[in-house]
Amino acid sequence: MSARDEVLARIRGALGDGPPAPEVPRDYRTGGDHPAGSAALVELLVDRLEDYRALVVRVDGDAASIGAAVSKALSDQEIRETIAASGVPGEWVADAPGLRVDDGSLTPRELDVVGAVVTGSVVAVAETGTIVLDGSPLCGRRAITLVPDTHVCVVRHEDVVGSVPEGLARLDPARPLTFISGPSATSDIELSRVEGVHGPRTLVVVVAGGSEPLGSQKGGPRTRAGGQARREHEA
Q1: Could you read off the pLDDT of 85-108 as tens digits, one per residue?
Q2: Residue 143 belongs to domain spanning
Q3: pLDDT tens figures, 206-227
Q4: How many domains are there within the chain?
Q5: Largest CB tally within 10 Å, which of 14, 33, 60, 176?
């Protein structure tokens, strides 16, 4: 027996047999009133995102429409260098300025000079206005989504769910999950808001799906000031 095993055995002996773990009730709400991807959920997600000061663009679900929206968003932000997650379709970033597809080699210092990152997403929760990235090729590694000053993220209608339990049911808990609710922002003790501290200062969400963009001009960002901030959590 190694010294480590001996120490652990003594700890187990001192602790003795504990009481059985209590059964956790599972009668909480796990679903919403609308199916994933429904118009009502998309509208709610857009409302939450705009309240968090994200820029929202609503387009058709085809690659050409998404690519046009991404290109316009990058142009509006005057981006000169762009990095894309390795699994992002080429049509989405065909006109991205100074494009580099991430191969994992760029350091945080090198990423700091990149103006924007383009990624997809794995799920979006309408009730909380939260977008989730899972580190997959479509979403990219965490560093590329936190260091550049602008994040252009594509969310498809079919990936929009109503509640957090519905979103979690779609996720692999073993993956590096990042939960994003608006652009990065924080406040000091005097409530002075500072943006871009913990992640991208600007979040552009391209909401893609349907035959017509609902409730807005195609390809045009809709914005509204709010009081919330981007939140990144590891799970």
Answers
A1: 999 999 999 999 999 999 999 999
A2: 34-208
A3: 999 964 433 333 333 333 333 3
A4: 1
A5: 60
